[in-house]
Design brief:
This protein is mainly alpha-helical. About 75% of the residues lie in helices and about 0% in strands. It starts with a helix and ends with a helix.
């Protein structure tokens, strides 16, 4: 439905479907594009909610509730030992935060659709903007927390060391659960109509949210890898490097969350700079790493020299891409402009050249993945080998 809205009805929007812009577009260009887009987004959200409801039911059945999955009995009731597996803690956090985000998004999507059908029924635009940014920002954050589950599980397997959910780890994830719900307001720092106390919350907790989970995860990755004599291959390398992408992307994000900086930098290419760092070098690296891990464990794919080359190519030129974005933001090159001043063009060219090589690396990633899929299911299980022996 989203693709139909874009390619058939020329509807142009992103997750920032700010009310009442879709309705105004519907008046000018027809309602079909806006209705297809908003309805498609709503159905996608319902699909994710069903996923989280299922996961919540599973965690409740196995661990006795979402609270226990987050380690509340250890944090608040003094229970000794370690909490549930790190992946379970992260899952519980995502269930709470992303379900909240999706409900906020569903509310404003439904209100926009009703407004298109009946313009007499309206919603307060400022409330709608808060709901929209709560949805989009929380969901974007949660992509990291969903993908890092693979890092917790797979790096532990490579190093033969469990990623233990100690009390500090549990407190960090609980803090992030709360902070992630609050920090979307740093997107509204330029809005004079937003109450000042909300903007202060956005700044303070944007600083705070960047530290707990990121620190314990990055530090934990270093600790379980240190002197583990693990075998470095495509999956383990990408998982480890993704920690760098996450940390590096969070630093310019925290800087942008400062009100006085935000007033100057938020509408520049500084923002896509930080976003592409933790998405491209963090989340995407985690996802591709897990794809290769799947092919390795379920099939017969082996690490080759071309994989080492492709990882180097990807991260080197992704550093060039995000570096060009951040530099452009530093010289006040605006984002979303079709034409640039001469002094901005060099950074554009560096980014374009970097993008070409990133696409090349992505093509090699994809080709290697699908080549590996041909062997999935042909690997002889270990117990059958033992029985045969």
């Amino acid at each position: 439905m989203v693709l139909i809205a874009i390619f058939v009805f020329d509807f142009s929007d992103g997750w920032t479907f700010l009310y009442p812009l879709p309705a105004q577009s519907a008046k000018m260009y027809g309602a079909a594009g806006a209705v297809f887009f908003l309805s498609g987004m709503l159905i996608l959200g319902i699909g994710f909610l069903l996923l989280y409801m299922y996961l919540a039911a599973r965690l409740t059945a196995v661990y006795g509730g979402i609270g226990k999955a987050l380690g509340w009995d250890i944090i608040f009731r003094g229970k000794k030992g370690y909490g549930p597996p790190a992946a379970v803690v992260a899952t519980a956090m995502v269930i709470i935060t992303n379900s909240t985000a999706l409900l906020a998004g569903a509310t404003v999507l439904a209100a926009s659709l009703v407004n298109i059908m009946n313009p007499a029924i309206t919603i307060d635009p400022l409330l709608a903007k808060h709901l929209t940014y709560a949805f989009g920002h929380i969901f974007a954050n949660c992509t990291i927390y969903m993908a890092v589950i693979a890092v917790y599980e797979v790096l532990s397997e490579y190093t033969k060391r469990p990623w233990k959910a100690n009390k500090v780890f549990l407190i960090a994830w609980n803090c992030s659960t709360l902070f992630t719900l609050m920090i979307y307001t740093h997107h509204l720092l330029m809005d004079f109509a937003v109450p000042k106390w909300m903007l202060i919350i956005g700044q303070v907790f944007s600083y705070a949210n960047g530290l707990p989970v990121m620190v314990v995860t990055a530090y934990g990755a270093l600790m379980i890898v240190y002197r583990s004599r693990m075998k470095w291959d495509f999956a383990s390398s990408l998982f480890f490097l993704s920690m760098f992408g996450w940390v590096a992307g969070a630093i310019p994000a925290i800087i942008d969350a400062t009100i006085v900086v935000n007033h100057v930098m938020h509408n520049t290419k500084w923002v896509p700079g930080h976003f592409h760092t933790y998405m491209g070098m963090g989340v995407v690296a985690m996802i591709i790493g897990f794809m290769y891990y799947f092919n390795k464990t379920e099939g017969n794919q082996q690490h080759r020299g071309i994989d080492t080359f492709t990882i180097t190519l990807y991260f080197a030129f992704f550093t060039g891409l995000v570096g060009s974005f951040l530099y452009a933001g530093g010289i006040s090159a605006p984002r979303r402009w079709a034409e640039h001043l001469p002094q901005w063009v060099l950074s554009d060219q560096v980014g374009a050249v970097s993008g070409i090589f990133i696409v090349l690396a992505a093509i090699i990633f994809t080709a290697r993945f699908f080549a590996g899929l041909r062997s999935v299911g042909t690997k002889v299980p270990y117990h059958k080998k033992s029985a045969a022996g």
